[in-house]
User: Which sequence fits this backbone?
């Protein structure tokens, strides 16, 4: 598997078991990313381009995807790794759930990516350099925590 450059890591403490947080994670990912219109997938050349698998069941590498992200590792309830790409970037988003007591855990999201070519560099500046990524990933983690 291609090694991508580290971007950042964010975490949140959640008052729920890892199992409940895992289910919330799958639900939020499917809801937030699963509805990308076919036109968007086509224009951005998202890979994978569509939803596959039932995100209410056990997630499996090769069987489950949402536009722009494929499950490449699923170790319930500890780690979920998604990989994907589009015309400006190849990326990975790894979620890790660490137990923090009987009814609590810490959910971490680690981002890695490559931004090839001039268009990739411009995209990196727009998404990473602008601080948008630094705002959006914690917001995603908060939605998952609320759902759990």
Assistant:
């Amino acid at each position: 598997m291609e090694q991508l450059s580290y971007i950042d890591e964010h975490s949140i403490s959640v008052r729920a078991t890892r199992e409940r947080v895992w289910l919330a994670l799958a639900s939020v990912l499917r809801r937030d990313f699963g509805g990308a219109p076919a036109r968007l997938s086509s224009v951005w050349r998202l890979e994978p381009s569509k939803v596959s698998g039932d995100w209410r069941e056990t997630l499996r590498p090769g069987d489950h995807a949402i536009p722009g992200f494929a499950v490449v590792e699923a170790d319930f309830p500890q780690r979920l790794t998604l990989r994907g790409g589009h015309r400006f970037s190849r990326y990975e988003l790894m979620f890790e759930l660490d137990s923090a007591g009987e009814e609590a855990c810490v959910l971490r999201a680690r981002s890695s990516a490559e931004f090839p070519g001039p268009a990739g560099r411009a995209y990196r500046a727009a998404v990473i350099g602008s601080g948008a990524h630094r705002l959006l990933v914690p917001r995603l983690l908060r939605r998952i925590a609320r759902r759990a």
Q: What stands out?
A: Strands lie at 5-14, 65-66, 69-75, 79-86, 89-99, 105-114.
